[in-house]
Amino acid sequence: MKFLYWAVVAVFVSPVGAGEEFVSLFNGKDLSGWDGDPKLWSVRDGIVTGVCAGPEAFPDNTFLIWRGGVLTDFELRVVMRVKGDNNSGIQYRSRPAPGAGPWAISGYQCDVHPAVEHTGMTYEEKGRGIFGLNGKSVILDPSGTRWLTAEQEPVRVNVSDWNEYTVIARGNRLIHKVNGQVSSELIDCDEKGRALEGLLAIQLHRGNANTVEIRELQIKVIREKAELIPFDPAKLPSGARRIERPGTKNPQGIGPAAR
């Protein structure tokens, strides 16, 4: 059950939509508008496909980056699956991480992971780590401290099936959904660490052999600027509590990680 806090802060968030339409970021034929390692990414039978052959394929996570511009507020819907014991993710409001290769990205991620606690969680690749696991709503205060404000039943899916992952980014409020169900929410009040705009990309994870397949990429850009939600300790629900940064026993999939 959601705590009251979300009803309180909702007044700061304008409704998503306001006349904008969804447009496709994939033409169904090739990777026009996208930039990734051509040895790893291709279009096969109308499906965007990324292949990691195993732990020696590449040394670090690599990404297929959309080069259509920098995104601020938007709603993104991606229909994808991951075959093999590994994970992927949808990067957004991200930035280049050139120290890890030409197609490396650092920033927010909606995780596409076979371990249920990580499915659709809020995470920052090469940054502040996990914010909230699947089923958790979290606020980051100005010092970077995590506050757990609500919990609900995790969304359970098989990531090797086709699933729809939704990211809604409005100001400093980020919502992730899996098949229409909210998996995690984050309000990021850490001004030094947060990002309000950035690049969009899809992750191909190093290690265990896996194939990422994407058949739909649709986005609705929200032009009405959202008010930033301030951190107000007085509005935290009575059940809210500080939490440590969540860790993981599943850095790749659900079995042993290839090194």
Molecular structure report:
By secondary structure, the chain is mostly beta strands. The protein has one domain (34-225): Sandwich (Jelly Rolls), CATH 2.60.120.560. Helix content is 2%, strand content 42%. The strands form 2 sheets. Strands 1, 3, 4, 6, 11, 12, 13, 14, 15, 17 and 18 form an 11-stranded mixed beta sheet that branches.
Would you summarize the structure shown here?
By secondary structure, the protein is mainly β. Helix content is 2%, strand content 42%.
Order of helices and strands: HEEEEEEEEEEEEEEEEEE
Q: Any idea how many domains?
A: 1
Tell me which CATH architecture applies here. Sandwich
Based on DSSP secondary structure assignment, what is the total number of beta strands?
18
> What Rg, in angstroms, do the CA atoms define?
18 Å
- Biggest beta-sheet profile: 11 strands, mixed
Overall average pLDDT: 92
Q: What is the helix content?
A: under 10%
Task: Tally the helices.
Answer: 1
What fraction of residues sit in β-strands? 35-45%
Give the uncertain stretches in residue-range form.
1-19
Distance between the termini: 40 Å
Question: What is the secondary structure topology, with strand pairs?
Answer:
Elements lengths: L4 H5 L13 E2 L9 E2 L5 E4 L2 E6 L9 E5 L7 E10 L4 E9 L8 E8 L9 E4 L3 E4 L3 E5 L5 E6 L11 E8 L2 E6 L2 E8 L10 E6 L5 E12 L19 E3 L16
Parallel strand pairs: 11-15
Antiparallel strand pairs: 1-17, 2-5, 3-4, 4-17, 5-16, 6-13, 6-17, 7-8, 7-16, 8-9, 9-10, 11-12, 12-18, 13-14, 14-15
